[in-house]
Amino acid sequence: MFTEIWIAAGVAIFVWWFSTGAILIAVRRADRRGPAAHAMNVVASVPVLVLGLAAVHVLASGTGIEAAYGGFLGALAIWGWIELTFLSGIVCGPERRSCPDGLRPPERFARAWWTVAYHEIALLLGLLVVAALCFSRQTDVALWTYLILFVARISAKMNLFFGIPRINTEFVPIPLAHLPSYFRQRPVTLMFPLSITVLTLGAAYFFQMLTQAETDAAIVAATLLCALSTLALVEHWLMIVPLPDARLWRWMLPAPPSRRPKESKTNGF
């Protein structure tokens, strides 16, 4: 039992770290080469999306360990491709300008929404596709995986909008250089404890699932989901705890471009 737990937890942590780093490398290199390189990244990575969809579709009907790992990796592949389209500036939103000073909260929220509207719709469509592929199947690891990522990402965006003490804009790519102007660096708001509560309950639910698992496949599935939800929780705590989390990926990334557009400045709120 403990062997399966350690292996599954290690896989979840490594894949989370490696996939994040791979996307950051691709985006950073495209920043150095120009807008066309971002589009090429998205096109060249379409096979990753196809493999992710195929993995979820084929393995969701299984009940073994391979179904748990396959559903987990497949959902991450789908999610990662959608994230790449966002970071490449291909699927983000119609608003590409920095946030002006003096906007009222409703106006600021509406403008912020239009900077990421297409991305949010794409994420929702991805969730619906994964749910459809897992419907009436034996294994729902893929759906839970995508749902954890979906909730954590929406929560993170809301906290960035309302305000958090620590904001790292080091990895914001050039196509999204206007986004930091919509972030707000300030003491935490009620959004943060709400987010922490939801994510903690989610991690606790999957931990309880792990303690009640009886088969190797169930143990692996619960461990993967518990590890991923815990990572999401840790990422939220790093919004207020002054730890150099960027070092996890900085060492492996190409040097950033020497010049950034003027819109990369942060206007604040």
What does this structure look like?
By secondary structure, the protein is an all-alpha fold. It has one domain (2-242). The chain is 67% helix and 0% strand. It has helices at 2-33, 35-44, 46-59, 65-87, 105-134, 141-162, 191-212, 216-237, 247-250. Helix 4 (65-87) packs antiparallel against helix 5 (105-134). The longest helix has 32 residues, at 2-33.
Quick description:
With 269 residues, the protein is mostly helical. It has helices at 2-33, 35-44, 46-59, 65-87, 105-134, 141-162, 191-212, 216-237, 247-250.
Tell me the series of helices and strands, N- to C-terminal: HHHHHHHHH
The backbone outline, from C-alpha atoms, is globular
Main sheet specs: none
Number of strands: 0
Multimeric state of these chains? single chain
End-to-end distance: 51 Å
Tell me roughly what share of residues is in helical segments.
55-70%
The gyration radius over C-alpha positions equals 19 Å
Mean pLDDT: 89
Beta-sheet strand percentage?
under 5%
State the secondary-structure class: mainly alpha
What is the count of helical runs?
A: 9
Please tell me the total number of domains: 1
Poorly predicted tracts of residues? 259-269
